[in-house]
Amino acid sequence: MHFRILSQARVRRDIKTRETVSATELIRQAYRYITRNEQVHPRIRQQAQLMLNAFPSHARPTTIRNRCTETGRARGIFRDSRLCRYQFRLKALNGEIPGVKKAVW
Amino acid sequence: MASISTPSKMRLAQLAQLSAKIFNNIYNPTGERTGNKILRKRLIGSTVTEWYPKRIITLRKITDTFPDMKLINQEEKLRLEEIAKRKKRGKGAPKKGQGKRASLGTKKKK
């Protein structure tokens, strides 16, 4: 594993996002439950919605971006290996990813 | 024999209510949104934070805790050597206030 990517600003931003999501997840879900529950008084639901809006934007799980753990690339990532397609190819050819073999027929 | 007739709506509702009570289901005839699908979801925090590799131990920590071992950080040593070499040739970093941007500012002031 290369730790060099940890110095990349976008990777660090993503790490921060993940930490914020993890820290605020429980309370956010509680507010979300209140806003979506039609059995609760509308005024309380509205207040819960306002509380949700007050969270920082990186508290939302959709702002998380899966990045390559070798290069920090944001596109073409294999979720299983957490690598971008080129790094995956390099490592697979090198035999560093167990169970992956180049197809020949 | 009594003729078989369909039960009234009220009776059917009562049946549904009772069945929900017996089978521990929620009786919700109007299909009101309760937000239960949010509570049903699994929390993702713990899995989401472990995507990137974490640097648990750094060389600095080891050298600080065991100063007797006299370990050398090769990368840092090379960096310092390179800086010393550049300085010798007069290519080192300028002092504070002597850089390109700082001198530009002073020129403007004049």
TrEMBL record, chain A:
Keywords: Ribonucleoprotein, Ribosomal protein. Pfam families: Ribosomal_S14. GO terms for molecular function: structural constituent of ribosome. GO terms for biological process: translation. InterPro entries: Ribosomal_uS14 (IPR001209). The keyword Ribosomal protein applies. GO terms for cellular component: mitochondrial small ribosomal subunit. Belongs to the universal ribosomal protein uS14 family. This is Glucocorticoid receptor-like (DNA-binding domain). It comes from Glomus cerebriforme.
From TrEMBL, chain B:
Keywords: Mitochondrion, Ribonucleoprotein, Ribosomal protein. Residues 83-110 are annotated as: Disordered. Residues 85-99 have a biased composition (Basic residues). It is found in: Mitochondrion. GO terms for cellular component: mitochondrion; ribonucleoprotein complex; ribosome. Belongs to the mitochondrion-specific ribosomal protein mS33 family. This is Small ribosomal subunit protein mS33. It comes from Glomus cerebriforme.
